[in-house]
Structures are given as C-alpha cells and as structure tokens.
Design brief:
single chain; alpha/beta; four-stranded mixed sheet; two-stranded parallel sheet; 6 helices; 6 strands; 40% helix
Length: 173
C-alpha cells in the first residue's frame, strides 16, 4: 500500500493494498481512506480472477514462492492489465553477502549465502528451497528466471530495467 498511498490516487480509482503484517495494514488504514487494506499472502491472493487493471509487487516476490506468487498475479490481473514489480538482483545479494562478511556477521552471511544459492536454484530449475526451520523462502531473481515465470503465467511485453532498482513490467495476454 505504500506505493498506492504515495501515488495520490485520482478520484474514482479503487485501490487495494495486501500485506501479511496486520500492523502495517492498520497503519495504512490510518494514513488513507483511498486504499482498501487486505490481509493475505502472495501465493494465495484473496481476490477473484481478472479483477485488477494493474498489480504492483514492490519488493515482495524475493520472499515468496515465486512460481506460485507469479501464477496468482497472472490469475488476478485482467487480460490487457499491467504488472509492475521490483525484485532483488544477483548484484544486490552479492553486495549484501560481501558486507556481512566484511562486518564478520556470520549468521547474516550464512543466511545470505542461502539466498544466493536459492536464486541460482530458481534460475536453473524454476524451483525454490524453503529453510527447514520456519519455512522461510528468499531468493534473488534473474532476467531469465523471472521471464520464464511471467511467460508461464500469461504475461507478455516484458521489460526489464536494471538501475538503482531491478524493475520488471509486463502486460497480461
């Protein structure tokens, strides 16, 4: 919902923000009445098929089961609708790992090594590994991996931008 709040929505636009964190949802509801805030997760979106003209996934996919989350985005975006998302790149993950190693933060470095390995696994196989304790999942994304999943979910006209942020846009076929 942060992006929706900051966008200054025009009159007549219906917007929905989704989050797992109920405190974040409550804060969003305090900040604006222009956005409906819903509790849920990306892998099981609580919406009917084809109801959104635009879906924004702002740095959420790195912490999800990407094939499931992208399939859900494909389900809820109407044909001709747009998708805009920001992701974690390989360089972001490598830089994080290097920083943790320099700071001698072994626990963070070990976790980030898992994220790095999981990103390679996703890129090469399209699968992800959850941590055995707690079931968390995190990965970096590659152009090839995310293009594969978006195409599989019915998206086309993919544009990938590498700059300060790793941004991908697409249109639902």
């Amino acid at each position: 919902g942060q992006t929706l709040i900051a966008s200054g929505l025009a009159a007549g636009i219906r917007a929905v923000g989704l989050d797992l964190d109920r405190e974040a949802l409550a804060l969003g509801a305090e900040l604006t009445q222009a956005v409906a805030f819903v509790n849920g997760q990306a892998e099981r979106l609580p919406f009917a098929a084809g109801v959104f003209d635009l879906a924004i996934a702002r740095v959420v996919l790195p912490w999800t089961d990407i094939p499931l989350a992208v399939a859900e985005l494909g389900r809820v975006v109407r044909p001709g609708g747009d998708l805009w998302m920001t992701l974690h790149s390989l360089s972001h993950t490598v830089d994080s790992l290097a920083g943790y190693l320099r700071a001698r933060q072994a626990r963070h470095a070990l976790y980030t090594a898992y994220v790095l390995a999981n990103g390679v696994l996703f890129h090469t196989t399209g699968r992800l590994a959850r941590l055995p304790v707690g079931g968390r999942c995190e990965s970096f994304q590659t152009d090839g991996g995310i293009r594969r999943e978006l195409t599989r979910a019915g998206f086309a006209n993919l544009v990938v931008l590498h700059g300060r942020h790793y941004v991908v846009t697409a249109v639902k076929r």
